[in-house]
Amino acid sequence: MNIAIIGTGYVGLVSGTCFAEMGNQVTCVDIDEDKVDMLRSGKLPIYEPDLEHYFARNRKEERLSFTTDYEDAVLDAEVIFLALPTPPGEDGSADLSYVLQAAGTIADLLVEQDDPGYRIIVNKSTVPVGTADRVSETMADRGLTTGEHYDVVSNPEFLREGAAVDDFMKPDRVVIGTSSEKAANKMTRLYEPFVRQGNPILVVDERSAEMIKYTANSILATRISFMNEIANLCERVGADVDKVRLGISKDHRIGRHFLYAGIGFGGSCFPKDVQALHRTGRQHGYDFQILDSVLSVNDQQRELMVHRLDEYFDGDLEGKKIAMWGLAFKPNTDDVREAPSHVIIEGLLERGAEVTAFDPEAIETTKVNFGDSISYAEDMYAPLENADALVICTEWHEFRRPDLARVHDTLGTPVVFDGRNLYDPSRMAEMGFEYFSIGRPHVAPQEDAEAIKAALSENGQA
Ligand SMILES: NC(=O)c1ccc[n+]([C@@H]2O[C@H](COP(=O)([O-])OP(=O)(O)OC[C@H]3O[C@@H](n4cnc5c(N)ncnc54)[C@H](O)[C@@H]3O)[C@@H](O)[C@H]2O)c1
């Protein structure tokens, strides 16, 4: 099939590459000339596991190309995907200007043709209920006829950054929102190779498809905020949130995913999608109260580490050297949009602290926000040099089992604020660390130098 992808970001690039991998002819469009130049020269603008391999192969086999010109992509395309940003507007609702403008540009191109043919316009962006209708109106306003020249399909994307290729190649389900049988059949054919293991392709109406995406993200965000509140209560009553999590996750009604307490959710989706769904409620005269709480609990949780550090240093962070491990909003991505680490950095800088950070992938993306107001390290042990404390913000694999003896010896003071509950509090205390985590009892550090030495040699190198 001939496919155009409008918007070549995380979703557009991964979708385009995976469609090409299945033998389709894909042209990706972006208005960012630098990005398109980079892609054309064979370089990827984002980090995503496995993407490089598929990207290189499909470019080489000439099934995947990139352009800044809509015309190059749209005129031959049977299916046109819109994978454009939908950032929160001032009132929290999704800003649809990118999507509607692109739809307008496509329609303008089509009406210029003697025979505009028939194409499917697919909303892959996360968009509020009613957007398929608005895209359709945009096309119709230019004189195109639905059913004859185009159909609009809502096809929300559920890929997770950090596992995007795998998620796209083996989706739990594919949702196709359309009232057109012709469009539904074509979309089903396009997606069949991705669900050979039997996962469903659900064909629903446009509005239900749009609601499915927001509902999924809002439930996941709710679970995170809920567990963060449980963690905060655990700290106050002397319980351990990780044990509570294990205890509930074996209940099949609850399951085990999205129950980890931490420093709040980030990324380009959860915060904006929860806000947008809340806003949709308002626009329809409904006060979706839980979502308000999900967001305010998350804001509070992302500030938690800063308050904890402030308290530990008696309100005087001025000049304190803080080492940070992890900048990406989650592991295996370089995405730092809405990352809790950035909220923490802001709080630390406001209080006069000096931050040196390490992340395996997200240093360049962080530089865009913080430039040289913080320092960056090329290896994970470098920021610890004479630091007053280490703060852990992202659970990259390499932070799970570091050489803790080296961490202990390199830090100026062995103080660790762990926003991801990576280590055992009792073992950390035995090794002489002052160790703070989320929702678990604090254990006073061992003070006897000989005992610390023994514990470090026993536990230090895991
Ligand atoms: N990132 C995710 O994990 C994820 C997952 C599921 C759904 N989504 C949704 O998918 C949509 C896209 O998200 P993303 O993370 O890929 O965004 P992104 O910011 O990474 O990419 C968007 C791309 O669109 C380009 N663009 C902007 N205006 C354009 C125009 N008029 N014409 C052509 N290109 C244009 C930008 O230059 C950018 O490259 C959003 O609605 C998002 O909520 C994202």
Automatic annotation (TrEMBL):
Catalytic activity as recorded in UniProt: UDP-alpha-D-glucose + 2 NAD(+) + H2O = UDP-alpha-D-glucuronate + 2 NADH + 3 H(+)
This protein's name: UDP-glucose 6-dehydrogenase
Domain UDP-glucose/GDP-mannose dehydrogenase C-terminal stretches: 323-425
Pathway(s) annotated for this protein in UniProt: Nucleotide-sugar biosynthesis; UDP-alpha-D-glucuronate biosynthesis; UDP-alpha-D-glucuronate from UDP-alpha-D-glucose: step 1/1
Active site per UniProt: 269
Catalytic activity, EC: 1.1.1.22
Gene Ontology MF terms: NAD binding; UDP-glucose 6-dehydrogenase activity
Keyword line: NAD, Oxidoreductase
Similarity comment text for this entry: Belongs to the UDP-glucose/GDP-mannose dehydrogenase family.
SUPFAM superfamilies for the chain: 6-phosphogluconate dehydrogenase C-terminal domain-like, NAD(P)-binding Rossmann-fold domains, UDP-glucose/GDP-mannose dehydrogenase C-terminal domain
A Pfam family: UDPG_MGDP_dh_N
Domain of life: Bacteria
Binding annotation for substrate: 158-161, 213, 258-262, 266, 330
Coiled coil: none
InterPro entries to which the protein is assigned, alphabetical: 6-PGluconate_DH-like_C_sf, NAD(P)-bd_dom_sf, UDP-Glc/GDP-Man, UDP-Glc/GDP-Man_DH_C, UDP-Glc/GDP-Man_DH_C_sf, UDP-Glc/GDP-Man_DH_dimer, UDP-Glc/GDP-Man_DH_N, UDPglc_DH_bac
An annotated GO BP: UDP-glucuronate biosynthetic process
Entry binding sites for NAD(+): 30, 35, 86, 126, 161, 272, 337
